[in-house]
Structure formats: C-alpha cells, structure tokens
C-alpha cells in the first residue's frame, strides 16, 4: 500500500529542461515496486487536468489505482525543481499543492489489511490518516522531505513517531536533527520513533542504521546521469518492494533491500522523469544487480605484517 503524490513535474538539469511531465513520489515508488512479486496499490489525488494515459500507465504495471481520487475541476499537484551542476543538490522553484491541499485519503477496503505500507512524500497529516486506516501492518516505511519540515513540523514529528523505517536524504537528516554527523543524526531520528533509519546520499550511496549496527551500500557508478528526480522514491519502492516480496524484515534482509533500492534508483536517473522506469525489463534489473554484486564483493587478505 503506497500513499504519496501523483503529480506534474517540471525539471531543469544541466542537460536539459522539461515541461509538465508525469511525476510524484507515489508514481516513482509504484513504478519501482511493481517489479516485485507483490500487489501494489496507490492512494493519492489528482485533478481533472491529469491525463488518463498517465493513470493507464500505472494500471498497466499492475498497480491498483482505485485509491487515486480525481477531483472534478481540480488541478493536480505541481512541483518544479532545478538541479545544480553536481546533480546532488537542487532548488525547489515551485510547489503548488492544488488538490493536495484538501485531500482526505480513503484506503480502499481491500487494501486495509496490507502488511507493508509505504508512506511516500506527502503532507504528514495525510500520511497519518492513511496509517490510521490500516489494520495491522507488519512494516511501515516513511519518506519525507524538507518542504514538510518547513511547513508542517509538528505533524511530521507525530507521523515519524509511528513508523518502523524512515528513508531520508543526508541534507534532510541534518535539518531534522541539527546534527552534522550522520551517525549522530540517525541516532536522534531513531529516538523520535523509527527503529531503522536509511539515509540516502545520492551518488554517494545509502546508509542503514539500526541501534548500533550500520550498513553501507554504494550507488552504482554510472556513465551518464541525466535527472535525479524520483531517485529517492525509486529507492524506497525497491527497498520496500523487496522486503514485501520476501516477507523478512530482519536487519540482515534489510541490507539486501538497501542494495535493491540502490539498484532500482540507478535506473531512474538515466533518463528524464519516469521515462527509464516506464521501460525497464526484469532482465535489465537482474544484470544490474549482478553488476552491483561484483562492484561491492571482495575477499580481503590481511597483509602478512598486520596478520601477525
Ligand atoms: P525525489 O527526487 O525522490 O525527492 O522525488 C521527487 C518527486 O517528489 C517529484 O516527482 C515531485 O513531484 C515530488 N515532490 C516534490 N515536492 C514534494 C512535496 N513537497 N510533497 C510531495 N511530493 C513532492
């Protein structure tokens, strides 16, 4: 069960610029998690201006869209952002909440028993309301961003207190805790509620924290990165999708989930917007995961002097 924005984005990177294209946190999460052997459903809201083709695309990936409300006469959430030359940082140019401003989410009856809940980036009160409608989830994963820290702090703290895992980027982790060290920051976030904290560091990979345990997954070094938009959501979709498929929520399995999240995100950035995620084969995913394994696995021989 995924909740998040289904949106229009306008993106500018050093390589080009797009007009309003399909975007939104739930869109990226769904496109990513649809590659796992699970049932996916999205709860969200769009306006009447949202093309049927975009909704059809989500359905064609096996995603249940019963929970995407279409508001008559309403305008879809719109976000525009501009990336800096390093592609790791961006400025939000505009956020128009539009139909999101009065959204009262309704989780379809058939999805209230879902075991895995992904609270994608959206107003924390909407995330809370979805959570309250769920029967007894096994794992709740939350993603958020600086916009909600600036605009809905108290509600954000409430929802953070109720989740098992939070995925957040490094800059946002620092903003949330006032700590520069990501280790200290993760510890503080954990004290706010989530047992597991995933800190995403863009092209520098991701860190997974649980109590005193830490795991690190690099990002795949890519020849070409066009547009990082949605990489964080695609990561979250791969991470949660993998856990949902295996049903195993141990720290050991979360390490694999972080690797899958990084692997899925590596595709997302190769083209503008959702384009790469719309056309991604299982074969491509498998060979990229093998590449990942080769990249990160090594047997270390201690030097003779140190082994003594
Ligand atoms: P990411 O690059 O993973 O942070 O995700 C980018 C996506 O998040 C875009 O497709 C936007 O439509 C969506 N987005 C941007 N700002 C917000 C916001 N304040 N709330 C929810 N979704 C947002």
CATH architecture annotation: 3-Layer(aba) Sandwich
Q: Report the strand count.
A: 14
User: Radius of gyration from the CA trace?
Assistant: 19 Å
The total count of helices amounts to 12
Terminus-to-terminus distance: 54 Å
Spatial order of the strands forming the largest sheet = 6-5-1-9-10-11-12-13-14
Coarse shape = globular
Description:
The chain is α/β, with parallel strands linked by helices and 308 residues long. The chain has one domain: Ribokinase (UDP-N-acetylmuramoyl-L-alanine:D-glutamate ligase). Helix content is 38%, strand content 24%. The protein has 12 helices and 14 strands. It has helices at residues 25-33, 52-60, 124-133, 146-151, 153-160, 170-177, 182-192, 231-246, 251-268, 275-278, 282-296, 304-307; strands at 2-3, 7-13, 16-17, 21-23, 40-47, 63-71, 78-83, 90-96, 116-119, 139-143, 165-169, 196-200, 206-210, 213-217. A 9-stranded mixed β-sheet has the order 6-5-1-9-10-11-12-13-14, sandwiched between helices. Strands 2, 3, 4, 7 and 8 form a 5-stranded mixed β-sheet that branches. A hairpin with a 2-residue loop joins strand 2 and strand 3 (16-17). Helix 6 crosses helix 7 and helix 8 (231-246) crosses helix 9 (251-268). Adenosine monophosphate (AMP) is lined by residues 5, 7, 9, 23-25, 79, 95, 121-122, 145, 147, 229-233.
Write a brief structural summary.
By secondary structure, the protein is an alpha/beta fold. The chain has one domain: 3-Layer(aba) Sandwich (UDP-N-acetylmuramoyl-L-alanine:D-glutamate ligase), CATH 3.40.1190. The protein contains 12 helices and 14 strands.
